[in-house]
Design brief:
Elements: H1 2-28, H2 30-35, H3 40-50, H4 58-70, H5 77-94, H6 99-102, H7 104-112, H8 118-135, H9 142-150, H10 156-171
Helix pairs in contact: 3-4, 5-7, 5-9, 7-10, 8-10
């Protein structure tokens, strides 16, 4: 009997948390959803992002990355960074294997703004999270915050690789 009660509570907890997560998701990705009204790849990215979890099939994850990469957000470097920031971090929370394909969306604009050292880049990104969350508590999902706080600091080599790519592109 105790097991049944415990299982029932877990089911209810999952149901209620999913509802809360959905509203959190909708708030965090409202800009992407709006963009999806005119940009088909943004609409598809929003849909796929909404279904993303640890169990998402590889084909669906790869489609998400393909659609995400099709979005061409034209703006200044700060707006570019802040548009992609919640999307990239949410994806990397669930699918860290895509780091090589999408980390550039966080590093490139900050490099363009003058941050060229790994030792500066990671704290800058963490600071950007804090800045945006003070401005809008719904800017990031809890998954994004978790990834930024716990995983990003471990990616010094990957951040350095992206900085070197930026230097190489600058030299060309």
């Amino acid at each position: 009997m105790h097991k049944l009660k415990e299982t029932t509570l877990k089911i209810f907890d999952n149901i209620f948390n999913k509802k809360d997560n959905k509203s959190e998701f909708e708030k965090a990705f409202s800009d992407l959803k709006r963009m999806g009204e005119i940009v088909p790849s943004a609409k598809r990215t929003y849909e796929l992002l909404g279904n993303l979890n640890f169990d998402t099939k590889d084909e669906d994850s790869e489609e998400l990355i393909t659609e995400f990469n099709k979005i061409k957000y034209g703006s200044n470097t700060n707006s570019f960074f802040y548009f992609y920031f919640p999307i990239v971090t949410h994806i990397l929370y669930y699918k860290p294997q895509f780091e090589k394909e999408i980390l550039k969306y966080l590093i490139g604009p900050n490099f363009a703004n003058g941050t060229t050292e790994t030792i500066e880049m990671i704290p800058l990104i963490i600071g950007a999270m804090n800045f945006k969350l003070k401005e809008n508590v719904n800017y990031l999902t809890k998954e994004s915050k978790e990834w930024i706080i716990n995983e990003l600091p471990k990616l010094e080599e990957q951040v350095e690789r992206e900085i070197q790519v930026c230097w190489k592109e600058l030299d060309e």
